[in-house]
Amino acid sequence: PTFDEFEFVELLKRYVEVEQEWVPRGEGHSMYLRPTCIATDPFLGVGVPQEATLYVIASPVGPYFPDGFKPITVVADTVNVRAWPGGAGDTKIGGNYAPTIKPVLDAAAQTDGRAQQVLFLFGDDHRVTEVGSMNVFVVLRTTSGQVELVTAPLSGDILPGVTRRSILDLARADPASVGVDVVSERAFTMPEVVAASNEGRLLEVFGAGTAAVVCPVREVVYEGSSIDVPTGGDAGPVASELWRRLSDAHYGRDASSDWAVPSSRSMPRCRPTA
After folding, report:
1. pLDDT digit string, tens, across residues 205-221
2. Angle made by CA atoms 213, 218, 224, in degrees to the nearest 5
3. What is the dihedral of CA 239, 242, 244, 246, to 10 degrees?
4. What average pLDDT does range 55-63 have in this prediction?
5. What is the pLDDT at residue 25?
6. Tally of helices (H runs) and strands (E runs) in the chain
């Protein structure tokens, strides 16, 4: 079964209007909308569903980082694999996330609670894929002296996240304004990241996803050694500028952006709820 995506957006607009008292006010607050689809055939089995229910989970949420950016420590996992070419790693399904829970617990135990997420790798060359449930970006200075913003390509094992795409679009529209010279979607490996760090060319590492928008990384633990990202306990200038521009689009402060979808009715500021 399928649905009309444009009609679905109109239904979402109407839903938000009706339930607007649930939309919190304040910078960083929002009502998180998660479209979900499940098969509802009246039997258990494996096959293409003939009936399905499309619904939206709506939840008021506060800022992901209420007291400012909190860069995280991640463990580059050389044992567990999140996804692989030809699999379903590029699809937003529950099966992509459940297997990542234990590796995160193992990473925390391995680092005495320091690590909050796992940087998933693939292949014998330890190609970088994703960090936790987020796409991952690295800012490095190339051997020719250019500042490169790089993320893994959509090769079948990478989720094509909307935040990922938004960051690439913003950076490519005007690379210099976000502090980079080159924007790349290419395969890169942990040995490349290690070499950049050893040579003083590693500048920033951050995840990008719906909830956090941008999540800076301060340390990567790889094969028993720590790679300290020079941004330390804060977000780097590239991540900070990208976060600012995305937030301006989210809250309608960027009048030139057509990414935000306005409701058909003007919504008043909501009163606080208990």
Report:
1. 999 998 889 999 999 99
2. 125
3. -130
4. 92
5. 85
6. 6, 11
Residues ≥6 apart with Cβ < 8 Å to 208: 134, 135, 136, 137, 161, 163, 164, 167, 214, 215
Which pLDDT tens digit goes with each residue over 115-162?
999 999 999 999 999 999 899 999 999 999 999 999 999 999 999 999
Listed in sequence order, the residues at least 6 apart from 57 whose beta carbon sits closer than 8 Å to its beta carbon are 32, 33, 34, 36
Query: 137 — phi, psi (to 5°)?
Result: -125, 145
Question: What is the pLDDT, as a whole number, of residue 194?
Answer: 98
Mind listing the pLDDT tens digit for each residue in 162-173?
999 999 999 999
User: What's the mean pLDDT in 189-216?
Assistant: 96
Runs of H (alpha helix) within 99-230: 101-110, 162-173, 175-178, 190-198
Question: What are the tokens at 108?
Answer: 């925390």
Long-range residue pairs from 21-25, CB within 8 A, at least 24 positions apart, any chain = 21/270, 21/271, 21/273, 22/58, 22/60, 22/270, 22/273, 23/60, 23/267, 23/270, 24/60, 24/61, 24/62, 24/270, 25/269, 25/270, 25/272
pLDDT given at position 185: 98
Pairing mode, strands 134-141 and 202-209? antiparallel
pTM listed for this prediction: 0.90
User: Contact 143/115 with Cβ under 8 angstroms?
Assistant: no
Rounded-to-integer distance, Cα 142 and Cα 145, Å: 5
**Residues 34, 56: Cα–Cα separation, whole Å:** 5
Structure tokens belonging to residue 229: 């990202």
Distance (Å) of CA 174 to CA 93, 161, 186, 215? 33, 21, 19, 22
224: which DSSP letter? T
